[in-house]
Every structure is written in C-alpha cells, then in structure tokens.
Amino acid sequence: MIEERMETDVLCIGGGIAGLMAAIRAAEAGASVVVAEKGNVEYSGCGRMGNDHFETHIPEVHGPDREAWIEELLRTAKGEILIGKDLLRTQFLRAYDIVKLWDDWGIPMKYKGRWEFSGHSFPGRPMTHVKYEGRFQKKILAKEARKRGVTIFNRVMMRDLVCNGSRVIGAVGTHTREDKLFVFEAKAVVLGTGKCSRLYPPLTPGWLSNDPHGGSQSGDGRAMAYRAGAMLQNLEMPQRHIGPKYFTRFGQATWVGVVKDRDGRPAGTFVTKPDRRYGDMICEVNKLAPEQYTNAGKGPLYMDCTDIRDEDHAYMMHWMENEGYTAMTEYMAAEGISFKKHPIEFATYPLRGGGLIVADENAKTSMDGLYAAGDEAFGDISAAATFGYISGENAAAYIRVIGKKNIEKDNPVITETRRLIDELRGHENGPDWEETSVALQQTMSDYGGKIRNAALLKQGLQHLRRIRSKARNTLMAKNPHETTRCLEVLNLMELGELTFLMALNRKETRGLHNRPDYPFTDPTLNQAQVIRKIEDKAILDWKPY
Amino acid sequence: MPPVIDSETCIKCSKCVEICSEDVFYGSKKGEVPTVTYPRECVHFNGCVSVCPVPGAIRLRIPLPMQLVYREAEPTS
After folding, report:
1. Cβ–Cβ below 8 Å for B20 and A43
2. What is the pLDDT of residues B25-49, one digit of tens each?
3. Is residue A480 part of a domain?
4. Which of A37, A89, A363, A372 fits as disulfide partner to A377, beta carbons 3.0 to 4.6 Å?
C-alpha cells in the first residue's frame, strides 16, 4: 500500500462545523492547517444539509446580563447537564461573536433584518436560540477555510493518533477510495469527528442507515483518542432523541405543532395550538413520551400541525428547508402528505452512544497537542462553532511554542494500521462490516441497553469481547470503501467494550442508565465517570463537573 | 434507499459522486452516469438531489421501512 506523508502545523480530523471553525481560526492565526474528512467537507457532519437554531445570548435582545440568562438555561435545563458550568460560560462569552462572524461570511443570521428567536424555549421564559438560514453553512465554512489557505483532504479517514509520550504528534489514516495510507506529522491535532451513533440498533431493525446522524458518525475520534491515552467521559450515559417515525430526522424544534395523543389531547402543557414562537417543548422535556405512550397502551403520539395558520405554515416550511428537511418535504409533496391535513407520528428514537472526549474551556484534552470540539466534546451547533473556533485558536498558540517532532518510518502505530488494513483486505469468507455491526448492536441493546444489571453487563462484555476478537481476525473488506466501514465498526466495538465497563462501574440509576440492581440515584456520583488507558489497562475514575 | 438516476438526462458531471457523505456511488467513473454501488448505505439527506444541476436527473426513492406514519384526517361532522 502506498503511503502519502505530509507535514502541517495543525491537523483537523473531521470537517464538520467544529473542524472547519478550528481550521479557519488556526489558519487565521498563521498556522498551516490540514483538514482530513471522511466524506466531503461541503456535505459532512450533522450540519451538512443545514440548521436553523443557534443558541446564543444577544445583548440587544436579552439585555446586558448574560450571567442571568445562563442561570436561566441551567434552571430550565432540558435534561441533565453533563458538563461543567465553566464550559457553558465560555461558550456564551464567545457565541455572539461567532454569530456576527457567520453573518459576515454570508450565513444569514437575521430574519427579515432582525434577530429572530423561536423554538427550544419555554413560553414566558427568555428565548435561547436565534433562527438562522443555515442551508449553505457547510459550503460557506469550507470556502472561508480555503480562503485562509487551509488544505482540505476529502475522502480520508484517520484511524489513529501518533504520540510521543503524552504528546500527540500526528495521525495515520486511509483514503476511502484508494488503497493509500496517509500519515500527517502535526504539531497539534483537533478532533471534530462527531457523535457515536451506530452502537445500538437503528429505529428499523437491521436497516443500518435509518439514523438521523447519517452513517459515518461512528465515534472514530473518541476511539482514537482513547487508544492514544486521552481521557473519555460518561460513555455509559446513552442518549435518545425524538422525531418523525420512520423517516428519522433531528430538528424537532423546527416543527410548529402540538404533540397530541390519538384523541387529540396535548401530551404536554406548554402549547395547545401550533405556536411558531415556541414549537412544543414536550419534545425536549420528555423525549421518551412516544415510547411511554405506546408502552402504556395510549399510543400512538402525533406531531399535529393541522391547526397551523397559513403564514405560520409558510414560516415553518422556510425553516425546514434551512434545517435540512428537503428530503422529507419533497417526499411528502410527492405522496400528498400535508402538515396541514395529517398529524404525523413521532417516535422516541433508539439509544445512541453517549459520552465525550474530556476537554476544558480551551478545548484542550488531557493530552498535549490534542484538542476536541463539536459532538466529540460537547454538542449543538453553537457549541461546535464556538469551541471549534476556540480549539483552532489554542492549537495555533500551542504550535508557536512547541518544536516539531518527526514520526519515524517504522512507528508502531503506523505499522499496526498498515497491518490491520492489509489484513482486512486479505481476509476471505469472513463477516463483512454490516454483519459485524448487527452483531455489535444486538449485544449492546440486549446487554447494555435500556435495562442493565451487573449480570447482564458482565455477560454482554464477555460476549462482545468474543465477537470483537473474531471480527478483528476475520472481518473482510472488498475495497477501500469497505475498509473504511470495517475500521468504523472496529472503533464502535472498542467503544462498546468501554461502555460496558463504565456501565458496570456506575452503581446507580441515573438518566437513561437504568440499573434495577441499583434502583436509586446516588448523589455522591453526581460527577463525571472517566476512563483512560494506562499501560494497556482501562482505568476508571470520577471527576467533578 | 437509493438515489435513482435518469440516465437520459444525467449530464455525467459527477457532482453527486463528489459530495455524497456515505459514498454510495463508490467506484463511479468520471464522465459516466454514476453507479449506485451501495444503495443500502444511503441516508436520504438529499445532498445529491440538491447539488444536481439538472432538475429531475436524480431523485431519492424513500424505502418502505422509512415511510412516514401519518393519520388520515377524519371527516368532521
């Protein structure tokens, strides 16, 4: 396999919103920057087809007291806040500046010439998200990055970080269309690799692509960070989302409707008629509502927009286009399905892998030269953009004071990556990546899913280790595309194993970590569980938020 | 499921091949009508449709397991 080797000051792995913002900022600060992206930066990541909500405080809207606005966010937190308050403060100190930057770059952050706030907020409470027309955001960010001299490699999947002691000095990966190894020597690396979405079965059993994240967010960043020795947090705390059934999509806050039961009764108490300003906050307060209604024999539950006024319908359609809903709205138009006529069933989506790479207010991880932002660190568009930018800024400052370290030709991480890929391409008669994914997902769901106990988790861990070892030795890839998919599923299996270890060690019930053998929430465990690899062993610990 | 390409109107520009995040068109050659090599990996985000310069030359077929569930309006008395 041929090898392409390059030097750069900063390597951004993943070209979503966070990765591109990191690249833009680091390049602005004078660093040479490379972005390595598995897909194409113009259409990759959660924001690929657009978004329409950006969480921010704006002084001329909310008044000058940002701190009071943050306190309100914490008070009315939709779900448990699993990060430190310092991170939130840092985000909102900088978010408004990012909003203005984006507007300057051509992502329209105003609606009809003014700041428009709607959705994601409770009636009568301060508004939290400014509406923006993000349909072309990825193209615009890619253009801004290129304008600053950033080199973009599309179709390159990074597999592992290369370290010198506890310092990250580069990364190795593979082209997704050619048998070609990529080695980047970098003084600093930013991980903006997205969520960990394919650990559990999708809404449609066996149909791996029915996932609102898309197929490529497979926890690659956290897996490589862990292997390099970085600290991960709370992998045992899975997440769930809510949205249309079975056409899985995020963006429930863009819908202007009321969540109602089969008899037309609202499931929540926030709105009774479609309200363009608030949507229905029941979707955020209780994402489990559709599943609970079904389990209690009261289902199904619908998002009912049938009472919507004509001007609000036009308003919703405008934002749906910007939120990336065109696949669904075009399908609806072709099928004669109408928001005005048809209540549309909502579902609680299945579990997805939780957790993150531990990173501080400077987006720095526990390793020197390694930064993380976006869904790998902590999510949503505003956080991805803001911490992406911060990570680029700090990576650029770091490379000014650190010398370059060469990666030797026979570095063990590079040798191992080459060997792994050669083996995947050489195996015959083994499982392919899809078979392996299904085996992983059923194990996670049955033994580490909605109900967990020590016996289930131990059994699941044993079983997963067996199938993981089999997969490692027999998994086969017919071409470079399948190699990429195999590397993804191997990453997911590694994260699955860590999820079992952390779930076993969290001896309480909290959020979606449901342990009937420890049915109560233990207040002393109101902290992050962390894991890192030390001398090839997974070491668990606790750390305050 | 897969994007469906009308080979009569496709101008073989490969824009869809360039941008697909899941690379369902893997192996397609420049200057030819794209091949949908991995239809089951399509995640229906519509990038290929939105980037196509010829309206209608590519469209998504939404697979049966992904059809929306909705209620027909009942006549009000």
Report:
1. yes
2. 999 999 999 999 999 999 999 999 9
3. yes
4. A372
Q: What is the mean pLDDT of chain A?
A: 96
Identity of the amino acid at A8: T
Residue A67 lies in a domain: yes
Boundary (domain end) residue, out of A348, A372, A392 = A348
What is the DSSP code string of A94-107? HHHHHHHHHHHHT-
**Last residue of one domain, picked from the residues A348, A373, A394:** A348
Partner-chain contact B66 A177, CB within 8 Å: no
| Same domain (yes/no): A526, A425 | yes
Amino acid at A358: V
Nearest-Cα distance to chain B for A196, in Å, is 16
> What is the dihedral sign for C-alpha A69, A75, A80, A86?
positive
Question: Which one of B24, B26, B43 would you mutate to disrupt binding with A, by most A Cβ within 10 Å of its Cβ?
Answer: B43
User: Does one domain contain both A343 and A421?
Assistant: no
Give A488-520 pLDDT, tens digit per residue.
999 999 999 999 999 999 999 999 999 999 999
Distance from CA of B52 to the nearest CA of A (A): 13
What's the CATH number where A263 sits? 3.90.700
**Domain CATH code at residue A453:** 1.20.58.100
SS3 A232: strand
Question: Which secondary-structure segment (H or E) carries A300?
Answer: none
Written as one letter, the residue type at B26 is: Y
Cβ–Cβ < 8 Å for A253, A241: no
Query: So where are chain B's domains?
Result: 1-77
ipTM of the complex: 0.95
The answer to whether position A421 is within a domain reads yes
Q: How many domains does chain A have?
A: 3
pLDDT tens digit string along A34-80?
Answer: 999 999 999 999 999 999 999 999 999 999 999 999 988 888 775 55
Residue A300: list chain B partners with CB under 8 A: 69
What is the 3-class SS of A495-511, one letter each residue?
Answer: HHHHHHHHHHHCCCCEC
Contact B46, A323 (CB under 8 A): no
- Structural domain contains residue A530: yes
Per-position b or e across B47-66, b if 16+ CB within 10 A of its CB: bbbbbbeeeebbbbebbeeb
Chain B: closest CA distance from residue A302 (Å)? 8
CA dist., res. A192 & res. A202, Å (int): 23
CB atoms within 10 A of CB A275: 18
Name the residue type at position B22.
E
CA–CA distance, A380 with A376 (Å, rounded to integer): 11
Choosing among A210, A325, A331, which should be mutated to test the B contact, i.e. which has the most B CBs within 10 A?
Answer: A331
Is it true that domain B1-77 has CATH number 3.30.200.20? no
AA letter at A331: Y
Q: Which residues pair with A477 in a beta bridge?
A: none
Residues of B with CB under 8 A from a CB of A: 18-23, 26-27, 37-38, 40-47, 49-51, 60, 62-63, 65-73
Residue type, A523: P
Q: The tokens of A125 are what?
A: 């409470």
The residue range of the domain holding A343 is 242-348
- Best CA proximity match to A241, nearest among A358, A128, A78, A119: A78
